[in-house]
Write a structure and sequence with these properties.
Elements: H1 6-17, H2 31-37, H3 47-58, H4 63-85, H5 90-118, H6 128-148, H7 157-180, H8 193-210, H9 216-248
Helix pairs in contact: 3-5, 4-5, 4-6, 5-6, 5-8, 6-7, 7-9, 8-9
Length: 249
């Protein structure tokens, strides 16, 4: 399907840009097929990740339930953003941003462990791809829209939150569209899901530290702006990759 020049580029670019996991859980094919459709992830090979995934398997956790748990963590982040924006004291506002970090990182851990339980734990299901994608899209929307409403004064920050959510949805859609049309999973960045979450996490930490000076809205705005700008570049790169791959096949 792919020319000899396209295959190495796909593998190289996917490895360079990925720091978070997704998995193929269609119930068909073995580990070779799964490795093609998963994000390359160094943390997946760490001892702590393997230990945690084994504990989840032993506890009877399923990949689909772990995927759904990512929505709960995203909802925690969204609620924390709302609390930060309506806090009556600097301490509560800063705590809100820090709780949002916990929600964002918890969501990413779910994205890591659902795949490990599915593939390494041998619990993939035929409906797994639905649970792989849909909760992620909901989680992205909750987190970014919530971040947009972290400003008590409203203004332009909610628009940035909605913009980041829309960009995240479209970027993910192009990836799945590429897979559906035969171009393969395209994980190109510079603003794929791991980078989006990293940018917002950094923004939350800086916002928490800047609450005493009332710079927190500006910090979150910069983080969301980076997500949007980087997402536009990512979208263009993925569309170009998918179209060129299809034309070359």
């Amino acid at each position: 399907m792919f020319s000899s020049s396209v295959r190495p580029k796909l593998c190289r670019d996917a490895f360079l840009y990925m720091t978070s996991g997704e998995r193929a859980r269609s119930g068909e094919g073995g580990k070779d097929m799964a490795s093609i459709t998963r994000r390359p992830l160094r943390s997946r090979e760490t001892q702590w990740a393997h230990w945690a995934s084994r504990q989840l398997v032993a506890a009877g956790s399923t990949p689909n339930r772990i995927s759904l748990a990512s929505i709960a963590f995203a909802a925690v982040a969204a609620a924390a953003f709302l609390i930060a924006g309506r806090a009556t004291s600097s301490a509560i506002a800063a705590a809100g941003y820090l709780v949002a970090v916990v929600g964002v990182q918890g969501r990413l851990l779910c994205n890591l462990f659902d795949g490990m339980v599915a593939i390494e734990g041998g619990r993939k299901t035929r409906s797994g791809e639905i649970f792989n994608e849909l909760p992620d899209r909901i989680a992205d929307s909750l987190i970014f829209v919530g971040a947009g409403f972290s400003s008590g004064s409203g203004g332009w920050l909610p628009h940035l939150g909605w913009g980041a959510a829309v960009i995240a949805l479209i970027v993910a859609y192009v990836r799945t569209l590429g897979a559906a049309t035969g171009a393969g999973q395209c994980f190109l960045g510079p603003m794929a899901k791991p980078q989006r979450m990293a940018a917002l996490t950094a923004g939350c930490l800086l916002a928490a530290a800047s609450v005493p000076w009332n710079w927190n809205d500006q910090v979150i705005a910069v983080a969301l702006g980076l997500v949007i700008a980087g997402g536009i570049v990512t979208l263009a790169r993925r569309v170009r990759f998918v179209t060129r791959t299809l034309e070359a096949s």
